[in-house]
Amino acid sequence: MSDPTPAVSIENLTKVYPIPLRRKQLVAVRDLSLQVQPGQVYGLLGPNGSGKSTTLKIVLGLVRPTSGATKIFGSDSSEVESREQVGFLPENPYFYKYLTGEETLRFFGRICLLGGRALQDRIDELLALVGLEHARDRRLGGYSKGMLQRIGLAQALIQKPRLVVLDEPTAGVDPAGSREIRDLILDLKKQGIAVLLSSHLLAQVQEICDRVGILSRGRLVREGRLEDLISIENQTEILLEDAPPELLADIRALVEKSSGKLRDIRKPQTTLERLFLESTESSSLGNPVESTSNDRKS
Amino acid sequence: MNAAPDPAAPPSHPAHRGFSPSRIAAIARNTLTELIRLKVFYFLLLFALLIIGNSAFMLRFSFQEEFQVLKDVSLGAMSIFTSLLAIVATAMLLPKDVEDRTLYTILAKPVPRFEYLAGKLGGVLVLLFIATLLMSVLFVAVLFIREKWVIAEILREAGGTPNEQALEMIANVKKSAFSGALVPGIAIIYLKACLLSALTLFVSTFASSSIFTIIVVVAVYFVGHLQATAREYWLAAGANVSWITKGFLAMVSLIFPDLQMFNLVDDIVAGNDIALGLFLRTSGLGLLYVGVYLLAAHFIFSAKEL
Ligand SMILES: Nc1ncnc2c1ncn2[C@@H]1O[C@H](COP(=O)(O)OP(=O)(O)OP(=O)(O)O)[C@@H](O)[C@H]1O
Ligand SMILES: [Mg+2]
């Protein structure tokens, strides 16, 4: 696999939206270039309105670029064919309210020309994967936001694409759910599937992305491997457990004798996320609240 | 594009197909499910009420009059109901998909935009077909029951042994109840609804809301019904009609289809047969309009920024 075709390549992409009635234009994306390699998880970061969603929509051929080009596995986004290998989860997805979870997946499978036993197996597999088996026969009109996000994710994976594009995949999902989605993304990565996602949840991006790009007002201001971007080269952290005070005193003394400088000694704090997860752990798996009632039949 | 199959691709992957009837069928089926689950068929109850109520009122008419009125009212109602259903059901399809962003998820799959439009239209056409069929069944059932009723009446008056005169009357009743023109007449009503549906789809590709679409199409509907009269008036006004006038009229008839042409109810009610030539010409024209509107819709929709 030397020099494979990139999963996504964006070259000098610019998107200008005209502002109607006023003789002004809005530059949503300005001269953006980046590549996502197969098997890579790429995070597109940026504040609200920085052009993340616009970029992703152009990659999927939903919006036309003003100039520049985007390609998926070497085929131009303007070609319908380029979407053969990609699954997309739009931001705040809504689906047909009158379809059940299972029917929704069947519909998306059919328009990808799947059918029969293979499709049914794939649907079962995906419903299990996103943890919606208990809600398969319920209409989406009654789904919560996080459940919609999950069915959206399942829908994106229906035809086993080699690239998955996710616009804020964890928006509206509870911490346990968003950890599941994180694990799922890591799982995709293990299978060699490329992932391009946008987010402004930095902690999460830091956990899963190999590479990140930071957008600001449509411009790519930083881009590169995550490790390169965030490591502070001249600092080292030491984490001790059950250290007696004498040891700490010795360390201080040692540091003072050397050319280094001690910046900080502090107690590490558990993250709010971890606290939340630990205290809700028992009820987070398998949504027992919903599965105990008899709503499976309804 | 990639001539050599990529070894990394999962084996289950079908190659991309530029045009796929089964994709269109999947979208059409989904559209039909949507419309049915929105309970659009409830309006059929109104139709049932109308024709059954109507025939109950007419007991004092002679049977010829009764059948004429029944056919007139039923076919007229069928025409208006299918037209309204076509316009309203189609007008909401695109705006709803755009608003809910379901369009994004569909077009992010390898679905050509034309197939999306064709699927949407296909779904509505199937819906209209079912609606027309249900109304026809109801209408024919009412007509049939009334016919049997009238015949029973005649036999009773004849006192058990039907004489020459009674038999003749029965033959008359049968003739005025059912005529061969009903089937092509109803087919043309269906075609008119199809045409309106395609037109509505076209308008909704550039309209800003479904209300706007409905208003525009309803306006076209009225102009389309009136334009034949207007044209006759214009052409009759001067013997030497210039080609400019003719060209203008041709333009008008492209934008405003001559819907009066699809109105064969009067003939049917009068008991006239519909000539095969006329039927074929009208159907051909209807299908042509559907095709032209679908292409026009595709033309605008494929360039549309979502
Ligand atoms: N259809 C459109 N017409 C006009 N302007 C648009 C359109 N879509 C997006 N924009 C503008 O383009 C800019 C970038 O929008 P975009 O949705 O890409 O931002 P984003 O980074 O996804 O933001 P968020 O984090 O809020 O989702 C915004 O200023 C937005 O107002
Ligand atoms: Mg966004």
Detailed description of the structure:
The complex is a heterodimer of chains A (298) and B (306). Chain A is of the alpha/beta class and 298 residues long. Chain A has a single domain (8-230), classed as Rossmann fold (3-Layer(aba) Sandwich). In chain A, 35% of the residues lie in helices and 22% in strands. In chain A, a hairpin with a 2-residue loop joins β9 and β10 (219-225). In chain A, α2 (101-111) crosses α3 (116-129). Chain A is globular and about 70 Å long. Chain B is mainly alpha-helical and 306 residues long. Chain B has one domain. Chain B has eleven helices and no strands. Chain B has helices spanning 21-37, 43-57, 63-99, 102-107, 113-157, 164-177, 182-204, 210-237, 243-255, 265-270, 276-302. The two termini of chain B are 26 Å apart. The A-B interface holds A 1, 4, 38, 57, 60-64, 73-75, 79-81, 83-88, 90, 92-96, 98-99, 103, 107-108, 110-115, 118, 152, 155, 159-160, 162, 165, 192 and B 1-2, 6, 8-10, 12-18, 20, 22-23, 26-27, 30, 33-34, 37-38, 100-102, 104-112, 305-306. Bound molecules: adenosine-5'-triphosphate and magnesium ion. Magnesium ion (MG) is lined by residues 52-53, 91, 167 of chain A.
Helix-strand layout with pairing:
The complex is a heterodimer of chains A (298) and B (306).
Chain A lengths: L7 E12 L4 E13 L4 E5 L6 H8 L7 E6 L2 E2 L9 E4 L11 H11 L4 H14 L15 H12 L6 E5 L7 H16 L3 E6 L2 H7 L2 E6 L2 E7 H5 L14 H13 L14 H13 L3 H5 L6
Parallel strand pairs in A: 3-8, 3-9, 6-7, 7-8
Antiparallel strand pairs in A: 1-2, 1-4, 4-5, 9-10
Helix pairs in contact in A: 2-3
Chain B lengths: L20 H17 L5 H15 L5 H37 L2 H6 L5 H45 L6 H14 L4 H23 L5 H28 L5 H13 L9 H6 L5 H27 L4
The structure holds adenosine-5'-triphosphate (ATP) and magnesium ion.
